[in-house]
Amino acid sequence: MSARIVYIALNTFREAVRDRVLYNLILFALLMSGASILVGQISIGIERLVVINLGLTAVSLFGMVIAIFIGIGLVSKEIEKRTLYTVLSRPVRRWEFIVGKFFGLAGTLAVNTFFMALGVFGALLYVSRHFEKQDGWVLVALYFIILQFLILTALTLFFSSFSSPLLSAVFAFSLFVIGSFAEDLRGFAGMTHGIMGWLATGAAYLVPNCSALNVINSVAHAQPVSGQLILYNSAYALMYTTMAVCGAVLVFEHRNLK
Amino acid sequence: MPAIEILDLEKTYSVGFWRKRPKCALKPLRLTVEEGEIFGFLGPNGAGKTTTLKMLMGLVFPSGGSARILGMDVNDPGMKAQIGFLPEQPYFYDYLTACELLEYYGQLSGVAAKERTRKISEMLQRVGLRDAGAVPLRKFSKGMLQRVGIAQAILHDPRVVFFDEPMSGLDPMGRREVRDLMQQLKNEGKTVFFSTHILADAEALCDRVAIIHHGELRGVGVVADLTSSVHGQVELVWQGTLVPASLRALGAECHVTGDTVRAVLSEANQDTAIEALRRERLRLISVTPVRTSLEDYFLQKLQPAEASAGARA
Asked: In this structure, how many other beta carbons lie within 10 angstroms of the beta carbon of residue A228?
């Protein structure tokens, strides 16, 4: 990887940290401590299920909000504030800038998720006093959540490369929400015919299949995740992310920075 | 090899939301800047100076023509390692300190890690920000940001430096310092290309200037030539408030300011006028030939378009 991509990624990470993005961890910690104490008092026998469900959903939501709110400004803010001019007038290629920005935000989300994961495991330990073997699947769920973040980051970056922050947020969020129902959309596409069928199939495969990446419920019920699904999801997320980042690069390579 | 070669570079934007219509920002521009010179790119606001600079920096794509810097294409990373750029009214990552910002730009420009620390402190000293290195940029004044902007543009020791309105936002002292710095860069053998609409700065600094208006090149010339042509008129300055009647008869334009009088008259009448002042026992302070200023040249070059616009109206 080009050293310039690393420098841009590190600067993006530093910006997030200095803009106090990681302060969300305090809110998350408060939420997890409150939930653990409350769950311990009101639920009998399902404390682990509630904590895992609540914890992983919170990790997913917090990360999603960060991915969208930082992602939408990754390119547009740099153009608006003209900070990009002094970067691109150096030996930095446009694709390096986009890829660096992507890794910067992905890194921020990974670090954030790591600390939130510690919070989830802390809460789990608090309610059941010990870890169980099936708690390892929580790690797989967290891995899938990170894959979702990668897709979302790439999508926001793609939209940010040509539209305003507000529209980027609307587009990325909408696509992500529709993607959560991707399996249903595919089912619908299978039932329709003609042009409608083509359109539905196209839309079903265009939106990110986030439903396949959501295993929170099954993990909360201590159900294992198959190796095949891990492999399939990893390949899918990698491909989708790569395509979205390539789309962002393609748009940005031809954009006039007025 | 010229430092900058602009070959019929032009830019037309599409404006309007529904019905797009073309708007010409720069008509085909042909210009050459030699290595080691300070070149002023002059024009009023909205003339096309920044558009030209953005095309040279590869930030905006031209609609036609091409440009080469140090013999290389404007998008060549090898070329970009050898140029520095200060945009107009620069804004930097305000969560960084001046040192961190220069460190980041040094990394992107490929300055070796060993050299970076030394160069950063050297640059901060050079632009008068030695004690502000650890201060976050969000606490910087406009003038201080301009100085950091200049530091980042020359940090990696570029051969060609582009400044877009470098004096903007600076107080008179700051302007003087920037002028000195540009002169130093020239003395170091670097090429300086800067855009401005402050003619006094251009006159004091530039070897050559180009004048652009409404996206069209109106003239290029050597500053020394443009400002040395004598109009056949002289300026006489004397102490007092009295203007001898004989001087008015010679057709002199006289202006009284405080206790001095300034008169402009034909060079042929110079001796007669001096004699008249002696007769009145007035103390002559100076006699200087009237020269064309860069401002005169600038206004003259802007005129044709204005005249034709007036005629159309």
From this structure: 8
Q: Which residue of A has its CA nearest to B105?
A: A87
Whole-angstrom Cα distance, residue B170 to residue B146? 8
From edge to edge, which strands make up the β-sheet containing B64-69?
B21-33, B4-15, B64-69, B72-73
Got the DSSP string for B24-78?
EEEEEEEEEE-TT-EEEEE--TTSSHHHHHHHHTTSS--SEEEEEETTEETT-HH
Q: Suggest the residue from B59, B74, B85, B96 to mutate for an interface test with chain A (most A CBs closer than 10 A).
A: B59
- Contact by Cβ (8 Å): B81, B19: no
A15–B77 C-beta distance less than 8 A: no
Task: Please enumerate residues of B whose Cβ is less than 8 A from a Cβ of A.
Answer: 13, 54, 57-61, 77-78, 80-81, 83-87, 89-93, 95-96, 104-105, 107-110, 149, 152-153, 162
Whole-angstrom distance, CA of residue A234 vs CA of residue A147: 7
> Which of the two residues, B188 and A23, has the higher pLDDT score?
B188
Asked if residues B291 and B208 have their Cβ atoms less than 8 Å apart, the reply is: no
pTM of the complete model: 0.85
Dihedral of CA atoms A162, A165, A168, A169 in degrees, nearest 10, equals 170
Q: Name the pLDDT band for B91 (thresholds 50, 70, 90).
A: confident
Q: How many contacts (CB atoms, under 8 Å) link A and B?
A: 78
Residue A251 has pLDDT above 80, yes or no: yes
Q: Which of A78, A85, A89, A93 to mutate to test the interface with B (most CBs of B within 10 A)?
A: A89
| Best of B15, B69, B93, B156 to mutate (most A CBs within 10 Å, chain A) | B93
3-state SS assignment for residue B127: coil
Evaluate if residue B122 carries a pLDDT over 90: yes
Q: Do B57 and A88 touch (CB under 8 A)?
A: yes
Out of B54, B90, B105, whose CB is closest to A90?
B105
CA distance B93 to A210: 34
Identify the closest residue of chain A to B148 by CA–CA distance. Answer: A86
Sign, CA dihedral A226-A232-A235-A239, equals negative
CA of B80 vs chain A CAs: smallest distance (Å) = 5
- pLDDT mean over A188-198: 85
Looking only at the bridges linking them, the beta strands covering B21-33 and B72-73 are: unpaired
Contact A91 B109 (CB under 8 A): yes
Which domains, and CATH codes, for chain B? Answer: 4-226 (3.40.50.300), 230-291 (3.30.70.100)
